[in-house]
Amino acid sequence: MHRNVWRLVLILFVAMVVTAGEVPLAPVVEGAAVLSQTVESGASDGTDYLFVWTDGWYTRRATRVTRDGEVLDHGGILLPGLSSRNGVVWSGTSYVIVWGEGYPSMVKMMRVGRDGTIVDGPRTVKEEAAPVSVTSNGSHVVIGYHTHQSPYGAFGKAALFLDSDGRIVSDVVLDEPTNHGVMNVGWNGTHFAAVWIDDLDPADPEYAVEGRRFHAGGTLDPAPRRLLTDSAAEYVVPPALASDGNNFLMITRGSGGQVARQLNADLRTVGPAQILPALDYELLPQLNLASPILWNGMHYLIAGHDGSAISAVRLDRDGRMFDVDAIEYAASPGSLANPVVATNGRDLLVGWTGRFSADPDIGTDVFGTLVSATTLNRRSRTLLSVSAQHQRRPLLASGGTNLLAVWQQGVALYARRLAQDGSPLDAVRLRLAERGTPTAVVFNGSDYIVVWPRTVDNNVTGLFTARVPRDGPLRVDGGTTLANAAPLAAASDGVTTLLLWESESVLYASRLAADGSVAATVTLARPNDDGWPNGAAIAAGAGQFLVVWEEVYMPSPYGSPPPQSARIRGTRLSAELVPLDPNGIDIVDSGRDSRYPAVTWNGREWLVLFNTVAPPAPPDWEYSPELRGRHVSREGVAAGPAAGVFIAPGGEFPSVAWDGSRYFLTWHTGTVNTVQTAVLSALGQPLSHEQTVERLFDWIPVPLVPIRPGIVAATYARTTVEPPYGNVVRAFANFLMVRPRQRAVR
Questions:
Q1: Which residues pair with 157 in a beta bridge?
Q2: CB within 8 A of 381, min separation 6: which ones?
């Protein structure tokens, strides 16, 4: 008998947190990529196409498109190492992508096969060189580049020849260093030609255009030829160049706007200026290193835009315009740009960046419009930046008999009810809002209340609430809108529901009616000489609520800007919104920087968790963040050491929940995208074995919701690999429980 009791004690002591089950909240859904996308370059292998686009700020992807406009790469081909504007051409055996990187710049490249696989690269093909133009004659790829030598501002111009497999064939010097370096290269079926701006003096708006013919063996002209001079009142755009198989067509922008001129094959004769429509033709190679002009066998074509439409301009061999057609119209002014055109000889695929919404917070996507090369009739439009929709910021609430999960997918806000084991109860998810990132979801005793912010230009300008029923058909009704309000947190005891929100650094609490509308509001904290409120958490207990927040202050007037620190303050509220602590509660004011409060009620008292950082100390002078906690009694008295009780190292963005007999905790460890989970039987007791969740998408708290004694659900979004998309961000509910780990006892 005594031996069995001792065995039970050991089993409880080595209890550990285990995963009862990680449940995805929604299936992977295909749609427009999540962040803002921009098309950068495109090419054709004579049948199909490949376009390169940015996915957010730093990631580049490529998409193959068939001659009929079908996207082959859902989710895009990730192009590792591609870090800047680029050009893509068909070499005869593969697509060659060229870009510059670093300072002094180096020329880099990678090859992508017809099947979408990366053949080789990224690799460096030329040190201390900046690529400015790339073209191909079907057997050789030619990269026009400039050097940057002393004295500052002197650019040498040269052309690097690669064979179809990307091996260097030759390096041809085109001009000695001068004060301008950006150029464009064209091929006329016999030889290459390069054209560039020269003698551009900011004090004298006179400039010259020069050019030189060359091939892999060297230059064909003894010196660069001066093609023309002109004057301009604005910055002069480097010329663009194309060929009809014999002569060349050059487009420049100068004092007369955009003009086209024919150059004969030996660059000796320059035709008269032909004025083009006043469109933005992306002549300055900010995105695409390839020329924006195409020859389709019958005429030249260049695409431009004016913010409201993308137009294709057709020119004859002499550069005279004979046709201009709009091929795409904007949904709102300024919502499309950056047309990039590729042709397979039969059709044109115009890649462009667009936003089909007047909402400025909706990101841009990359579209491809298939157009007949001869008639400019549009065949189809295709979304090129296709991706699995990211799922972010999942939250969960328990209604006793079921759960409600809410999350952001793409830019919209969705909800679905789940059984207590996480299995879906609703076959179809509910779209709560066209845009939304959930802030809070609570159960008010009969229904669920969901809270999310309203944003304009990525700034929070208000908040929404809505009611979702626990039982019956899945629907949304009720709710309210508060202007100039940023939601922070919400809590309910099953009778009273309180919402915390902030406006102009003032912290408020509102009591919500059963339908989610605001019934009453009270001010909790204002900026004063001591500091200002920043962030907040709330928990219900014994007919009261405890609100905790950071109070940010300036510990010293010195420094530029002065350093900021924070302490943890709090106050209790009655169900009628009466502050029970008029002067507030100093929960943590130890001189250490204390932030990220989280709070829960254990049936007798509140536990407040926070992250605290001691000032750096010798010899390493490193910050030492710690997770700490402090109890607050029902009477509003903070117990224990003023700096709190140490729990664990690290401890940013903590969350805490009480399951009826123990605390479940989560916190970020300081390792990027990693969170730890643990259990405390009482504050200050040793932690159980810790579980880690990695590859989290957001650096935010991982909230915890008690399901039943012994089981708590954590919700988060993390990166998973989902064929055929590759890395996808999905929302999960992870059901955590304490399971005894038995150990043999002698």
A1: 146, 175
A2: 69, 328, 367, 368, 369, 370
What six digits make up the tokens of 673?
Answer: 């995208």
- Judged by average pLDDT, the poorest of 74-78, 170-174, 299-303 is 74-78
Domain encompassing residue 221: 129-295
Q: Is residue 194 part of a domain?
A: yes
Phi/psi of residue 7, nearest 5 degrees:
-65, -40
Determine whether 211 is exposed, middle or buried from the number of CB atoms within 10 Å of its CB (0-12, 13-18, 19+).
buried
pLDDT surpasses 60 at 745: no
The CA-based angle 554-557-560, given to 5 degrees, is 95
CA distance 127 to 106: 5
Domain presence at residue 347 = no
Helix count and strand count (H, E) for the chain: 1, 59
Q: Quote the CA–CA distance of 182 and 188 in Å, as a whole number.
A: 20
The C-alpha angle 211, 215, 220, rounded to 5 degrees, equals 55
pLDDT range class, residue 559, cuts 50, 70, 90: very low
Euclidean distance between CA atoms 740 and 728, whole angstroms: 34
Here the CATH number for the domain that contains residue 278 is 2.115.10.20
Number of structural domains found in the chain: 1
Give domain status of residue 660, yes or no.
Answer: no
What tokens does 582 get?
Answer: 């008029």
* Percent of the chain surpassing pLDDT 70: 86
Any residues with CB less than 8 A from the CB of 507 and at least 6 apart, and which?
488, 500, 501, 523, 524, 525, 526, 533, 536, 547, 549
Q: Choose among 226, 288, 230: nearest CA to 258.
A: 230
Closest CA to 22 of 741, 701, 693: 693
Residue 286 in domain: yes
